[in-house]
Q: What sequence folds into this?
């Protein structure tokens, strides 16, 4: 009997036919009928999926992260396993390539670190976890919810903290789940963009931006407080195209960012004094008569009042003194901007994370408007748009059970994705508290207090402000349920963790708040371990709730993510994209059929006056100045300013934890100006302690003149296994605007201060 | 689970300073999850591909080979693709199947397939998995005992010494 | 001139986003710590800002590769049709001569497999008519595949500052250098 070699065995195993017949004679004798001791493997073979000879099965996916670029993805699957991803070639925005984060997705899906099963911690932070079946987990959660209801007579003691961890539209089913249980407490608002969102709504009646693919038409581009080279890499090619066509690219930023390095000109502005700089430009443009008199007369109100304000309160010298930009230069760029046809400003979200953020955005809008650049292809005050998000929100719009009691009186919008409008004449509503002050709100809220917190699509202990306060707030909570993929700093303090799917393991639909493409997200592979999509979790909870107390939850008890994705489409949305069925998206992403790449091209605005409002009564009604004008920044509360913007290696707390990412970026740093460091005896690479009234962070320092001498720069995020968390230095002071469109003011993340010493 | 823990605890020989009775079922469960399950990153993931595949991830080439071996045996995992086929529990289950079949009949094919599964698969990764467990401090005696039983069984099956060098470990 | 494929590294367009480096990992799933394409920030002597200009480098597919020269196992070949230098895993004996000899650090030692490995210019993708994974992924078209026989970019250089000058090896990579903006800062008081 010749010995069968290893190579022969491997060859036989490759092929389903040869391997199934290999032991044929033996198996035919019924040897498998009785399998003593074997408890897992079962007789009978499954279809292992087609064996592809060299080729792959491809799927359409959409990156569901909170990112301008929302890439259209093509996934390559072999034998039911995701092998690699690429950008979809059909999208002229994604243009076939993903970013460093998108390219790491395969590692994310199959990371051994992924949370596999529902688990319960015996004492928060102890690390003592027991595995739960889904039935056990849903039972514990359902009983707690019913206990709260019995105790308080309502579910106001149940709160939801959720934001943008996953933007696939059916994830709003988490909000839907809350509604389907009753009236609950919602953490509303957004840390992201609300001040600017309100500002654009006051000025123009809506937040709409030019198609970023029209940037090559611009003749002058100011990227103001944004860093697309890190945060919107796919936009860079359009900025380069503009430069190649002769446009001047100017970057205004306190920090010499990567985008600044690619500009024609970098202007260093004092943090928070963007409004002053822009007003200086407005004043100069007014003086020189370089503004668009016709456009202003035909399409705006309040300009004369604004002009009077400029003449009385603004001079170039004042603007120079406030912003740190030399007066002669303010004059120069003002003239260049006003005379370029067209000119545009990319208004960054970082720019408005200040106590005067909304006011600053109004000023930048005014600069674009008075120069006649609103409504022009290649022009515009570019911030964001939600025009392409006109879905049904079927997952979100669930009904409270009969007889539910809640907050008395109407409540405002529950975040920027709440398109339901202000409801009059309602008896009960959800109780809304400020998501940007989560810790303080949990501590202060009573009658009833917040007893139970559900966290989804958010990592509050890594990302929310004033971390020491958040830990205190957690002490008040009776139960914390966290739905997540990795053991991050929030899961560390959870009572129950529920494993969720990546977007490769579910169906969904995604739009962007920047470009105008729509991307279907097909399920490419089966969910790993026991992961469930957020809506599947809602269905499972509903099933258990109704078993324990019939009628206590209206969420359907079975869901299919494909079916629920299909249910998000309506005719208006399909028409916007020029398709007759969502199934057409299976062939690839589709772009909206815009009549013009520029919104407001007909000069008719959505404001009460139907015009651009330099003077906005609505703005005054919301507690701000009616006229666009300067607003003071936050006085320093410590020696140096602290900035905590985004890293290019992560989306907030996602991706940095992967070992593939650690290969390219392994630890956090604080960046200090050499002069500032020298005064403190700090050398490059030294271990330092950054501290302020909130707390402290210990890490290594890097010295660079790319940050202003009065500023410490640190990138926010979560590193696996490191205690690093910049939220130990960031308090929760509000930005001026945000409540109008999102239910709560924003947060002045970049109005923070600290000092540093050698550790 | 409690009964299983009790049996294990009784069987485990007492280690120095760790009287067997100090292990409660709960402590054993916490340790088991910390070592092999989660929710945090685990020091000894019980999947072949984590040790054998170049990217140390799940659902790799080794996973496919395990599934192919089960297919050849005429059995399959009930998990329908959600649990990687190269999970230790499934592979040890397959060893039970092999033994049941070998007891019924002598077959050159069966012997060759078992030899492959044992020497070119199990023996390549299980010792590394066991070495990862050894690197973890304060492993309860019951778990160490089971690990040593596994090691002894492997040695007995192929008469080879277990690998002692430690792989570039996951964490 | 014979067809010689190589990379064009346009440091003017490059934003150091690392998409190329990760695209390679996405394609080949290298073990943690084994990196075929690295994105190197230029020192401040070369570009006077901290980590604001980069050279994305993998293998330079040299005309006279050092790796091939020192390999005792004939595990390296240079393709006739396009000059791609390929490392053959199955022949590699893990002596690491190539790892020590390449001045560009292209071959990397994999402690798990105990063999060397490096960028092979995605020759399987090339043969299927596809771009290398890194080139395809670059969002700014800063990393391109070029054929030195037909490449004609007047601003391109072979040995920019910061890149080891090894003319004997004759690397096939070409570069365009990064530029600086005009900088307006507050007048120092």
A:
């Amino acid at each position: 009997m010749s010995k069968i070699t290893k190579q022969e065995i491997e060859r036989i195993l490759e092929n389903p036919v040869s391997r199934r017949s290999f032991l044929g004679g033996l198996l035919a004798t019924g040897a498998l009928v009785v399998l003593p001791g074997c408890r897992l493997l079962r007789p009978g073979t499954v279809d292992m999926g087609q064996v592809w000879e060299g080729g792959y099965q491809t799927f359409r996916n959409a990156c569901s992260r909170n990112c301008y670029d929302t890439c259209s993805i093509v996934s390559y699957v072999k034998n039911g396993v995701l092998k690699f991803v690429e950008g979809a070639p059909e999208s002229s925005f994604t243009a076939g390539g993903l970013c460093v984060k998108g390219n790491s997705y395969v590692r994310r899906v199959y990371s051994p670190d992924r949370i596999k099963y529902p688990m319960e911690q015996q004492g928060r932070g102890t690390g003592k976890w027991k595995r739960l079946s889904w039935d056990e987990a849903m039972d514990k959660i359902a009983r707690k919810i019913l206990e709260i209801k019995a105790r308080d007579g309502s579910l106001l003691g149940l709160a939801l903290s959720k934001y943008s961890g996953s933007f696939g539209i059916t994830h709003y089913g988490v909000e839907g789940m809350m509604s389907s249980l009753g009236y609950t407490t919602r953490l509303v608002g957004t840390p992201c963009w609300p001040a600017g969102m309100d500002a654009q709504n006051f000025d123009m009646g809506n937040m709409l931006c030019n198609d970023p693919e029209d940037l090559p038409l611009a003749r002058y581009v100011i990227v103001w407080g944004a860093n697309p080279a890190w945060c919107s890499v796919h936009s860079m090619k359009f900025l380069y195209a503009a430069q190649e066509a002769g446009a001047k690219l100017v970057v205004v930023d306190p920090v010499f960012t990567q985008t600044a390095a690619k500009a024609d000109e970098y202007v260093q502005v004092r943090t928070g004094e963007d409004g002053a700089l822009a007003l200086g430009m407005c004043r100069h443009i007014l003086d020189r008569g370089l503004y668009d008199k016709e456009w202003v007369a035909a399409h705006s109100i309040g300009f004369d009042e604004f002009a009077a304000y400029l003449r009385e309160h603004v001079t170039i010298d004042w603007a120079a003194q406030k912003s740190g930009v030399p007066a002669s230069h303010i004059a120069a760029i003002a003239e260049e901007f006003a005379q370029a046809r067209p000119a545009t400003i990319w208004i960054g979200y970082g720019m408005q994370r200040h106590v005067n953020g909304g006011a600053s955005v109004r000023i930048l809008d005014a600069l674009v408007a008075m120069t006649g650049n609103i409504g022009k292809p290649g022009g515009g005050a570019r911030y964001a748009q939600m025009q392409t998000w006109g879905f049904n929100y079927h997952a979100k719009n669930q009904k409270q059970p009969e007889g539910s009691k809640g907050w008395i009186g109407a409540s405002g919008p529950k975040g920027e994705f709440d398109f339901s409008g202000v409801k009059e004449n309602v008896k009960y509503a959800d109780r809304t508290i400020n998501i940007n002050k989560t810790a303080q709100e949990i501590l202060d809220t009573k009658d009833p207090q917040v007893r139970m917190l559900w966290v989804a699509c958010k990592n509050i202990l890594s990302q929310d402000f004033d971390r020491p306060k958040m830990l205190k707030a957690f002490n008040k909570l009776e139960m914390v349920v966290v739905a997540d993929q990795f053991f991050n700093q929030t899961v560390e303090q959870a009572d129950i963790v529920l494993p969720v799917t990546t977007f490769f393991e579910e169906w969904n639909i995604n739009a962007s708040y920047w470009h105008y493409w729509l991307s279907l997200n097909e399920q490419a592979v089966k969910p790993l371990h026991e992961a469930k999509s957020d809506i599947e979790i809602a269905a499972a909870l509903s099933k258990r709730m109704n078993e324990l107390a019939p009628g206590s939850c209206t969420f359907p008890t079975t869901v299919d993510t494909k079916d629920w994705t299909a249910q998000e489409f309506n005719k208006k949305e399909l028409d916007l994209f020029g398709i007759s069925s969502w199934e057409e998206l299976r062939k690839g992403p589709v772009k909206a059929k815009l009549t013009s790449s520029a919104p407001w091209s007909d000069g008719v605005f959505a404001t009460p006056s139907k015009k651009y409002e330099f003077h906005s009564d609505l703005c005054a009604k919301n507690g701000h100045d009616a006229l666009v004008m300067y607003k003071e920044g936050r006085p320093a509360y410590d020696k140096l300013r602290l900035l905590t913007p985004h890293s290019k290696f992560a989306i907030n707390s996602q991706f940095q934890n992967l070992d593939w990412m650690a290969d390219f970026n392994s630890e956090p740093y604080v960046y200090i100006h050499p002069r500032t460091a020298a005064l403190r005896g700090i050398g490059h690479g030294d271990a330092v302690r950054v501290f302020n009234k909130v707390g402290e962070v210990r890490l290594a320092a890097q010295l660079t003149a790319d940050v202003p001498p009065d500023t410490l720069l640190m990138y926010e995020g979560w590193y696996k296994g490191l205690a690093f968390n910049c939220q130990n230095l960031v308090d929760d002071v509000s930005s001026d605007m945000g409540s109008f469109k999102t239910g709560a003011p924003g947060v002045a993340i970049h109005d923070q201060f600290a000092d540093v010493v050698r550790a | 689970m409690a009964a299983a823990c009790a049996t294990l605890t009784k069987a485990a020989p007492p280690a120095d300073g760790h009287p067997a009775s100090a292990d409660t079922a709960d402590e054993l469960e916490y340790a088991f999850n910390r070592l092999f399950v989660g929710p945090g990153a685990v020091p000894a993931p019980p999947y072949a591909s984590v040790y054998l595949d170049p990217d140390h991830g799940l659902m790799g080439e080794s996973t496919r080979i395990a599934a192919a071996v089960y297919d050849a045996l005429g059995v399959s995992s009930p998990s329908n693709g959600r649990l990687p086929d190269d999970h230790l529990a499934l592979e040890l289950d397959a060893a039970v199947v092999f033994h049941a079949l070998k007891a019924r009949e002598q077959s050159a094919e069966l012997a060759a397939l078992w030899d492959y599964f044992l020497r070119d698969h199990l023996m390549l990764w299980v010792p590394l998995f066991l070495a990862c467990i050894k690197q973890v401090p304060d492993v309860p005696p019951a778990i160490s005992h089971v690990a040593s039983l596994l090691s002894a069984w492997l040695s007995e099956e192929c008469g080879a010494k277990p690998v002692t060098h430690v792989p570039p470990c996951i964490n | 001139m014979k067809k010689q494929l190589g990379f064009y590294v346009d440091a003017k367009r490059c934003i150091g986003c690392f998409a190329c480096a990760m695209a390679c990992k996405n394609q080949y799933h290298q073990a943690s710590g084994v990196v075929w394409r690295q994105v190197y920030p230029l020192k401040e002597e070369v570009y006077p800002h901290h980590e604001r200009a980069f050279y994305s480098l993998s293998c330079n597919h040299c005309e006279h590769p050092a790796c091939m020269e020192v390999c005792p196992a004939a595990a390296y070949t240079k393709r006739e049709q396009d000059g791609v230098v390929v490392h053959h895993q199955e022949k590699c004996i893990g002596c690491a001569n190539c790892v020590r000899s390449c001045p560009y650090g292209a071959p990397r030692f994999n402690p798990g497999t105990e063999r060397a490995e490096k960028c092979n210019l995605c020759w399987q993708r090339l043969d299927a008519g596809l771009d290398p994974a890194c080139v395809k992924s670059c969002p700014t078209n800063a990393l391109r595949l070029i054929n030195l026989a037909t490449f004609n970019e007047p601003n391109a250089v072979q040995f920019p500052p910061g890149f080891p000058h090894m003319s004997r090896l004759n690397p096939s990579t070409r570069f365009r250098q990064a530029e600086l903006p005009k900088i307006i800062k507050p007048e120092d008081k």
In short: Chain A has a mean pLDDT of 95. The two ends of chain A are 72 Å apart (CA to CA). Chain A has four domains: 1-45, 119-192+414-507+524-591, 210-383, 640-758.
